[in-house]
Design brief:
Number of helices: 7
CATH superfamily of the largest domain: FAD/NAD(P)-binding domain
Distance between the termini: 31 Å
Largest sheet: 7 strands, mixed
Strand content: 25-35%
CATH topology of the largest domain: FAD/NAD(P)-binding domain
Helix content: 10-25%
Number of strands: 18
Structural class: alpha/beta
CATH class of the largest domain: Alpha Beta
Number of domains: 2
């Protein structure tokens, strides 16, 4: 069991967590970042970014690389470990338990910033689990190239779905964009790009009923069964891959509903300073306030706000 105490532990190395780390280290706080996946979070699943100040256009993975490089320049302690539990002990110190390769570790800190982000929602239809990684993928950038010059489908009506469809249109022969409504929940520029793209075909007011494929020789997706909104009309759609983009769920399992800081959907409740009702515990980025705009720039703003609030919180604690 490894034990070490920090001023601040940041759970997650997406844009929000990286910004918080930079501000914290510039205030000379001893800081640890814990990230179970890739540095930069969902930037690694974003094809191009055109609305982050300072970059007219930049690939998501490249922006993730630059942000992580900036944060690492401050020589922040960094562990690629999965957080499994977060508690606060009787000495008012946070205990963060992690795991990696069946090994378990515990770290201690005076404050914690939760920047764990979200995970992809599932369609929860027949065939989804069976064909995951065999034609069903939740990352167009990661797996799209495997289906170049073939017919694929994207499900969803928000930014992630439209951006995935646009990205895949540069690779695939045809992209079906399936949405249960008539209108998309995106800005007019993204909508215009989707509608004018000759390789994207819109299939509106339809839902995926079943994902069908072969399992005998080579396991693969072959087609979808679609329903109309009343569940009366069925339609067969031949494809080689399906990319569900139907929303996100907050990654807060490690909290185990600590003192009720999460709402009914498991998003973390915070105030304007990104503080939870537990002193010293903060949350930023996509893991909070799902109704607000979710952009890279708002995530980094959260990081700056939370880091400053952490500094103020620790100073108050030292004076007591």
């Amino acid at each position: 069991m490894q034990k070490q105490q920090y001023d601040l532990i940041i759970i997650g190395a997406g844009p929000a967590g990286l910004a918080a780390a930079i501000y914290a280290k510039r205030a000379l706080l001893t800081t640890l970042i814990l990230e179970k996946d890739l540095d930069g979070g969902k930037l690694n699943k974003t094809a191009e970014v055109e609305n982050y100040p300072g970059f007219t256009k930049i690939e998501g993975p490249k922006l993730a690389e630059e942000m992580a490089k900036h944060a690492r320049s401050y020589k922040i302690d960094w562990k690629n470990e999965k957080v499994v539990q977060l508690t606060k002990n009787n000495q008012k110190i946070f205990e963060v338990k992690t795991e990696k390769n069946e090994m378990h570790f515990t770290y201690f800190s005076r404050a914690v910033v939760i920047a764990s982000g979200t995970i992809e929602n599932k369609l929860n239809v027949s065939g989804e689990e069976e064909f995951t990684n065999f034609g069903v993928s939740y990352c167009a950038i990661c797996d799209g190239f495997a289906f170049r010059d073939r017919v694929v489908a994207v499900v969803g009506g928000g930014y992630s779905a439209c951006e995935a469809a646009l990205y895949l249109s540069e690779i695939a022969k045809k992209v079906y964009l399936i949405h249960r409504r008539k209108e998309f929940r995106v800005d007019q520029e993204i909508k215009r790009q989707v509608e004018k793209n000759p390789r994207i075909k819109l299939i509106l007011e339809r839902t995926v009923k079943e994902i069908v494929g072969e399992t005998t020789n080579q396991k693969k997706v072959t087609h979808l069964i679609l329903n109309d909104l009343q569940g009366l009309e069925r339609e067969k759609l031949e494809i080689s891959a399906l990319f569900p983009c139907i929303g996100l769920l907050p990654y807060t399992d490690f909290l185990h509903d600590s003192n009720g800081i999460c709402d009914g959907r498991n998003y973390v409740n915070v105030n304007e300073k990104c503080e939870t009702k537990i002193s010293g515990l903060f949350a930023i980025g996509d893991v909070i306030k799902p109704e607000r705009i979710r952009q890279i720039v708002t995530a980094t703003a959260d990081g700056a706000i939370a880091a400053q609030a952490v500094i103020e919180c620790l100073r108050k604690t030292e004076k007591k």
